Amino acid sequence: MPLFSYRRQFRDLSEAEVLALAISSEEDDARIYRSYAARLVAEYPDTARIFDGMAAEEDLHRQRLIDLFRRRFGEMIPLIRREHVAGFYARRPVWLMKTLSLDQVRAEAAAMEQAAEHFYLTAAKATSDAGTRKLLGDLAAAEAGHRHRAGTLEAASLTPDARADEDRAEHRQFVLTWVQPGLAGLMDGSVSTLAPIFAVAFATQDTWTTFLVGLAASVGAGISMGFTEAASDDGQLSGRGSPVKRGISAGLMTTIGGLGHALPYLIPDFWTATITAMVVVFVELWAIAWIQNRYMETPFWRAAFQVVLGGALVFAAGAFIGGG
User: Fold this and answer.
1) 176 and 122 co-located in one domain
2) Domain around 301
3) Which of 47, 86, 117, 247 has the fewest CB atoms nearer than 10 Å to its CB?
4) Which is more confident, 239 or 37?
C-alpha cells in the first residue's frame, strides 16, 4: 500500500492534534534555522546571527503553544508531524540547503514563514468550528508576527555594509569554486583539442573520423581535467570550495570546449564542416575572453589578444601538421 494512504487529512485532526502539529512544526523550524546559522557562521556571521535570532523566536512560539496545550489538554502531547498530514506545507531537507546560495537560503527562510501563515489562514477559513478557527487564526498571527520579527532582526543585524560584504564574499566563492576551474577547463578544451582535431581533418578529409577523434579527445581531456582539478586541492586551505564541484566544473567545461568544434564534423561535407568548426572556434575564443573580463576582471582586449592569439597558433599548428 502506498505511503501517502496513511496520511491524515487536516480536516480530520482534533484541536489537540492541530496544536501538537504546530508544536512539532515550531521545533522543526527552529532546528532548520540553527542548521542554517551553523552552516553560514564562518563566512556570513551577520546572516548567521539573524537565523539564530529566528530560531530563538521559534523556541518562544513553541513554549507558548506547549503552555496552551497543557492548559487545555494536559501533559500528553500526541506525536504528529508534517509528514503525517496530507497537504501540509513541506520543508526542504536540511542537507539540501548546502547547495543553495546565500540569497536562496534567505528566500527559503522567508518562504517558510509565509507558507506557514498562509496554511493556517486557509485552514481557519475552511473550518466551521469556532474553537478550531480561533486556534488556527492565532497560529497564523504568530507566523505573521514572526515574519515581521525576522525583518526587524535583519534590519538590526544585517546593515547595508554587512550585506554588501557578504554578497562580495559569496560572489568570490562562486568564482573560485565554479567560474575559475570552469574557465580553465573551457580554455583547455577549446584550445588544446584544436591541433589534433584539425590535424586529422586536413590529413584525412574524413568528417566521421575527425568527429570520432574530436569526441575521444574532448571526453578524455574532460575526464583528465576533472580529476586533476579535484585532486590538486581539497579546498581546506585555499578556500576554493568543494573539490568535487570544482572537478565537475572543470571536466564538464573541458568536454564542452572540445566538442564545440568536433560536432560540426557530423556534417558529411568536409569543407562545410570545417568552415562551421572554424566559426565555432571563433565564438568559443571570444566567449572565453568575455568570461575572463566578466568574472576575472581581465581587461577585455588583453584577454581577447591572449586567447585568440593562442588559439590561432594551435589551429595553425594542427592545420600545418595535417596538411603536411
Assistant:
1) no
2) 169-323
3) 86
4) 37
